[in-house]
Design brief:
heterodimer, A: Beta-Lactamase, 3 domains, 14 helices, 16 strands, 27% strand, B: 128 residues, Transcription Regulator spoIIAA, 5 strands, 23% strand
């Protein structure tokens, strides 16, 4: 019967550790045959150092005094190769209670120990905080990074529900989401598209990114959560957005050149985003200064194509709705040619070659509007945007 | 007599009308009745319609404004729209709402000057 078990070595020892029975499993595990082993001290499996330290005697003594012992230790095969053994040592007693021998059951756990230490090594060396959670949502395992990130000691986290790391206002929802994940466990980022927050021991919150993956183990499916603090990245993103806004702001200045006259020197290519910003900037400035004339200077725009013209026209129309007249300036001869060739129709928008001429026109418009120079302004009326 | 739905102020021979809140079809009809009545009663030569306190200005409101302006013109007065806000102007342009036929001004003061110019044009006496 003993020989039916081959993945576990089963050995019967005499009271001093001498081998009495040697199973086939023992032969397979250690390399020693039954004939070689029986009669010898089982310390033949010990390492040189352990033999010197009389480890076998200590083990037997401990089992004799305390009953069944279970422990792990390094052993040596016949060929000299070491293996990690998981050992159960049970004393066999006579009716009077005297120990007449021992039963030693051991197996080679080198592989699983290696896998486990590899797993722990991976867990600890991962750049992200890792929290492993069981089916009941209680924390099974955390790594050092998780301790550092959340400010909890390992012992404080293990056994607690995962929600201890979630800000209170999200906890109810989180309970629902985690049940959903357990119903269909697969590798995926948590809360795709949402801005997730974690909570430290001291109650402070920080933005996180979390990736979830199921871990199949003998204890059932666990969930591994890799948690990354994205505070810095969020800040960088926001700084970039701010800087982009500032650059747009800088690239679309609106200058008050005269009482009730604004000028917009447009420099560079006019794309939709810039055009929108330009229009907004101009209209806000109009609302603030109550300017009646806006000069759009396009001398800094390399090419006026249909799209750019469309943007300019929209700006002009929006300004007109508020009651402000627009004048275009800085049209170069080649620009004028290409605009007409492209069939661009700027409507009744008045245009001047230079900013100086545009400003003169603006002042004439203002004077006419104020009714003080009716005669000078008369020819302008026909071209007014109304 | 119908209830007044909008406040109308008279400055000289100009009426100042401030439209507010949400306008629905019924209110619009009442406003048209009230404004045409007021122009006829006072003999005003101009009307400024302030839209700065309308919660929404869309193509519907644009049509309403055009209608009011047309009615006022038929009664022999000039009308202009004042107080279109920047966001509203952008929205109207993006929606492609045609408002080119409307006369607009930034504020009541500039609106009065605009009405003055419109009246001069209308009388035709100083046309070259």
């Amino acid at each position: 019967m003993l020989n039916a078990v081959t993945d576990q070595a089963i050995v019967k020892l005499g009271p001093h550790g001498e081998v009495v029975r040697w199973s086939r499993g023992a032969e397979a595990t250690t390399g020693y045959g039954e004939s070689e082993a029986v009669g010898r001290s089982v310390s033949v499996l010990h390492t040189e150092e352990d033999r010197t330290a009389a480890l076998m005697e200590q083990e037997l003594e401990s089992a004799r005094r305390n009953g069944r012992r279970e422990f792990q230790g390094w052993r040596v095969r016949k060929g000299g190769e070491r293996f990690l053994a998981h050992i159960t040592l049970t004393p066999v007693r006579a009716e009077d209670g005297a120990v007449t021998g021992f039963v030693k059951v051991f197996g080679d756990v080198t592989e699983s120990a290696r896998a486990e230490s590899l797993f722990h090594g991976l867990l600890e060396s991962a750049p992200d905080a890792m929290v492993i959670v069981g089916q009941d949502a209680r924390i099974v395992l955390v790594n050092r990074q998780a301790e550092a990130l959340f400010g909890f000691e390992r012992a404080e986290l293990v056994g607690r529900e995962i929600e201890v790391l979630v800000p209170p206002r999200f906890r109810d929802r989180h309970v629902g989401h985690r049940s959903g994940f357990l119903a269909d466990p697969r590798l995926r980022p948590m809360g795709a598209g949402l801005e997730l927050s974690g909570m430290r021991r001291d109650g402070t919150e920080f933005p996180v990114e979390i990736s979830l993956s199921p871990l199949e183990t003998v204890d059932g499916t666990l969930v591994a959560a890799a948690i990354r603090d994205v505070t810095e990245r969020r800040e960088t993103e926001q700084r970039l957005l701010r800087q982009r806004d500032e650059i747009l702001e800088l690239s679309t200045p609106v200058i008050q050149v005269w009482d009730k006259v604004l000028a917009l020197p447009i420099i560079g290519t006019l794309d939709t985003l810039r055009a929108t910003r330009l229009t907004e900037g101009l209209l806000e400035k109009i609302a603030r200064t109550q300017a009646e004339v806006a000069i759009l200077d396009i001398s800094g725009v390399p090419t006026i194509d249909t799209q750019v013209a469309q943007h300019l026209l929209k700006t002009v129309q929006a300004a007109a709705l508020m009651g402000t007249v627009s004048i275009m300036s800085g049209v170069r001869p080649e620009t004028a040619q290409s605009m007409v060739h492209l069939g661009i129709d700027m409507g009744r928008l008045r245009s001047r070659n230079t900013l100086q001429e545009a400003l003169q026109l603006a002042l004439a418009v203002l004077a006419e509007r104020a009714g003080t120079a009716a005669t000078a302004a008369r020819p302008l009326m026909s071209g007014d945007s109304r | 007599m119908t209830d007044d739905v909008v406040a109308v102020m008279k400055i000289g021979d100009t009426l100042l009308v401030a439209l507010q809140g949400d306008l629905d079809d019924t209110t619009v009809i009442q406003i048209e009745e009230q404004l045409t009545r007021e122009v006829a009663r006072t003999g005003a030569s101009g009307m400024l319609i302030d839209v700065s306190r309308l919660s929404v200005v869309d193509s519907f409101i644009a049509r309403v404004l055009a209608r009011i302006v047309a009615m006022v013109r038929l009664l022999g007065a000039q009308a202009a729209v004042v107080g279109i806000q920047p966001a509203v102007a952008i929205t109207l342009v993006e929606l492609g709402v045609q408002m080119g036929h409307l006369d607009t001004a930034l504020n009541a003061e500039q609106g009065l000057a605009l009405l003055e110019r419109l009246r001069r044009n209308d009388t035709g006496t100083d046309r070259p």
